[in-house]
Specification:
25% strand; Gyrase A, domain 2; alpha+beta; 28% helix; 4-stranded mixed β-sheet; Topoisomerase, domain 3; elongated
């Protein structure tokens, strides 16, 4: 539709065109006049107007405090015709030491707190500019910046302030415009000004060069930022995220009457995090049991510089795990996302660190040039007048006569200009000169001032002619600012990245017992659930099993260990120990089908724990032994990342199943025992490493009806006090020294390891004991458990039957034994 003129001054415009143009006008108004800072002085219009209005009223750092209401009223009346709370909220932010790294306003009264408390109304508070604010407004009266009419054209306001410091970096900013936003973190003044000086000397400096001075953001609330690579990327591109954490320390208390042995003390929190809300969030997580081990939380903070949140921990808790949970679930750890968007010549641009400093340096060059030009003009004017006064003093008698003859001031001025060749300025100055200037000393003062002024003019002219001198002046002023206002960093910078908080970090790394039944029920329990007894005891009930179910596997491992589940089908599955739910001693546990994708009829026959340190080690190997006496060696890294559906671990013959798997190193030997009481020991290198799907080779020759019931590692140097422990199904057991088992070649029938008869029953367990003080936990098929020291089991010869280890109830028999 074409634009047409209607009657009565009505203009018809297509609605899509009007909406487009009006929205763009509105958006640009918000961007330029409200939300984004100018790259030169780093201020938004409202902040600029507040400082300029206060400066006009003389509310400098040396002035007494004045009511905030008066400042708000002045700003609204003269420059900022918006809501009073918009102006006052800006004043409050500029005065809060936890919001601004370098507050530009000093406040007296309640200006809010880091706990989210609101500031008092402006009729109660008082303000004045801070000492640093004087640097932002310095030289504004020397025509250093352009002015434009205010909203009602009754006065003029500065378009930008002649700031000596880049406030866009020092205090940072946060602004949401239309279709864009800015988020610039605060920085340390000393670091930024040193980088500015370096850039002035080295215009080709890279971001890496500037980062030798600017370590990273410096937040008023302190904290710790991580990973210099992320910091460098954010400064180079103007966008990026940096991990920020509050400082927290784990403190161990001396033994005494206190109710806790350790505390977590938080001494700083991330920028823009509400401290009170953080404490409430921690309390909620404790109440919801998402964070366990916390006994009490209290805020002992006094000031921003003395933040102190104390978290008392329960006895037996794991402080590092509690702290990791706080990092994961609360704002004690946050990401600060850079978006360095600022106005350059009125246009929004995303700036790098170097670009920001270049824009500010260019601004300073303009300001210094205009200031020098202004000073030069004033100096020339003053020198001109002083020259006239000096000349007048040389001819004072004639000048007095000329003035006396004149009818009025105008005639006297004209006579001076005609008879003595004075300019109008000089003539006016002579007429205004006091008689005291005729004194000898006053005459000398004029001559001295004229000489100084001529030297100043010469210096100012040399500055304007020499860019190097002008740059030197900027550098000198920057160094003076560093000397006067420079302070130490509050935020610490860690070179590497913070460890990502995952599920494992929230779970204590402690020993745990795993129990698996023939029926496929699995659980883990704490070792202290089992009470130590002397040999021959009845034991305690461990598992609430069904009548036909019984224990098949019991092992001890760290909660962080990877568990490799080997099945009778020759497959292997992987699971973390902590993925198995913890249960009490007498609970049944959960079906293993909830955790592993086992096929129908597939049974777990062996579980191998791999400590988390295993992945960092050089190559090591695993030995696998089947019930039919087949052995296979394979590199362990083949099983570091097993898919959920499992992978083939060994190719099995019909009727065979995998019995045991354990780690072996060069020089180790392997010992096997059969149900019929035979044993063989051979070197690990008798079996070469094979592929993952290979079937293995013969490890031990078995008689008809016999099978392997135990296989274990004999490490280098273990022949001394180490022993081979065997236990029969009727509860009898013994230890035999390893040195009684000579090393043979694999594939033989072996030698006798125990006397097997009707009293003892067949052997069910065979293990190497690594030391006399380790513990043994024996379980029966009916769920009875006994826990004894290995040193309580007597040592005897290979052909003995052993002694009673566990007294069994009628019909019961030993299912498994695990060493701790």
């Amino acid at each position: 539709m074409e634009q047409k003129s209607g009657g009565r001054g009505i203009v018809y415009v297509p609605i899509d065109k009007e909406m487009r143009e009006s929205y763009i006008t509105y958006a640009m108004s918000v961007i330029v006049s409200r939300a984004l800072p100018d790259a030169r002085d780093g201020l938004k219009p409202v902040h600029r107007r507040i400082l300029y209005a206060m400066n006009e009223d003389g509310l400098t750092h040396s002035h007494r405090f004045t009511k905030s209401a008066g400042v708000v009223g002045d700003v609204l009346k003269k420059y900022h015709p918006h809501g009073d709370m918009a102006v006052y909220d800006s004043i409050v932010k500029m005065a809060q030491d936890f919001s601004s790294r370098y507050p530009l306003i000093e406040g007296q009264g309640n200006f809010g707190s880091i706990d989210g408390d609101s500031a008092a109304a402006y009729r109660y508070t008082e303000v004045r500019m801070s000492a640093l604010a004087s640097l932002v407004l310095e030289d504004i009266d020397k025509e250093t910046v352009d002015f434009s009419p205010n909203y009602d054209a009754t006065r003029k306001e500065p378009i930008v302030l002649p700031s000596r410091v880049p406030m866009v970096l020092l205090n940072g900013t946060l602004g949401i415009a239309v279709g864009m936003a800015t988020k610039i973190p605060p920085h340390n003044l000393r670091e930024v000004m040193q980088a500015l000086i370096h850039l002035a000397d080295n215009p080709d400096a890279t971001i890496e060069d500037l980062l030798e001075f600017v370590q990273g953001p410096d937040f008023p609330t302190g904290g710790i930022i991580f990973n210099k690579k992320d910091i460098a990327h954010a400064y180079a591109s103007g966008r990026g995220g940096v991990l920020l954490r509050g400082e927290a320390e784990i403190v161990d208390l001396p033994a005494g009457r206190q109710v806790t042995n350790s505390q977590i003390i938080i001494t700083s929190i991330p920028y823009q995090v509400n401290k009170a809300e953080l404490i409430i969030k921690i309390a909620d997580l404790v109440h919801e049991k998402k964070v366990e081990g916390v006994k009490d939380i209290r805020d002992e903070s006094t000031t921003l510089d003395d933040t102190r949140i104390v978290i008392d921990l329960k006895q037996g808790s794991f402080p590092q795990k509690v702290l990791n949970a706080l990092y994961k679930h609360t704002d004690l750890e946050t990401m600060f996302h850079f978006n360095t968007l600022a106005l350059v010549d009125g246009v929004p641009e995303t700036l790098s660190l170097k670009s920001i400093l270049e824009e500010f340096l260019d601004h300073r060059k303009v300001v210094v040039k205009r200031r020098t030009t202004f000073d030069l003009r004033k100096a020339n004017e003053r020198a001109h007048i002083l020259e006239g006064l000096k000349k007048a003093l040389d001819h004072i008698d004639e000048i007095i006569k000329s003035i006396k003859k004149s009818e009025d001031v105008g005639a006297a001025r004209a006579a001076l200009m005609k008879n003595f060749k004075f300019s109008e300025l000089q003539a006016v100055a002579i007429l205004e000169m006091k008689l005291s200037k005729l004194a000898g000393l006053e005459r000398k003062k004029i001559e001295d001032e004229l000489r100084e002024m001529l030297e100043l003019i010469k210096e100012l002219e040399s500055i304007l002619k020499s860019p190097a001198k002008m740059l030197g002046l900027i550098k000198k002023e920057s160094q003076e600012i560093i000397d006067k206002f420079g302070d130490d960093r509050r935020t610490k910078v860690v070179k590497g990245g913070a460890k990502e908080i995952n599920t494992e970090d929230l779970i204590p790394d402690e020993d745990s017992m795993l129990v698996l039944t023939r029926g496929g029920y699995i659980k883990r329990t704490r070792p202290e659930e089992y009470k130590r007894q002397r040999r021959g005891g009845v034991g305690v009930v461990d598992l609430d099993t069904k009548e036909e179910d019984f224990i098949t596997i019991l092992l001890s491992a760290s909660t962080h260990a990877d568990l490799l589940f080997f099945t009778d089908k020759g497959k292997v599955y992987q699971l973390k120990m902590y993925d198995i739910p913890e249960g009490k001693r007498a609970t049944r546990g959960k079906s293993i089908m909830n955790f592993l994708s086992l096929s129908e009829g597939e049974k777990v026959t062996s579980i191998l724990p791999l400590p988390k340190e295993s992945r960092a080690r050089e190559k090591f190997e695993l030995m696998m032994i089947t019930r039919k006496g087949v052995g296979k060696k394979i590199e362990a890294d083949k099983f570091f990342d097993v898919r959920r559906s499992g992978i083939i671990a060994i190719g099995l013959d019909n009727g065979d199943e995998l019995l045991a798997a354990f780690e072996v190193e060069k020089g180790d030997s392997v010992i096997l025992a059969s149900r019929g009481g035979q044993a063989i020991r051979f070197r690990e290198n008798d079996i070469r490493a094979m592929g993952r799907t290979a079937g293995g080779v013969r490890a031990m020759k078995l008689k008809a009806g016999d099978e392997i019931i135990g296989a274990d590692l004999v490490g280098k140097g273990m022949e001394g006090e180490y022993a081979f422990f065997v236990m029969s199904e009727n509860g009898l057991g013994k230890k035999t020294k390893i040195k009684e088992y000579k090393i043979q070649k694999r594939g033989g029938s072996g030698i006798k390891t125990a006397k097997v008869n009707a009293k003892t029953g067949k052997l069910v367990v065979a293990k190497v004991l690594l030391g006399g003080e380790e513990e043994l936990v024996a379980m029966s098929k009916q769920g009875q458990v006994i826990r004894v020291l290995g040193s309580e089991v007597p040592t005897s010869g290979r052909q003995t039957q052993g002694v009673r280890i566990m007294k069994l109830r009628p019909g019961d028999s030993i299912a498994s034994v695990e060493r701790l």
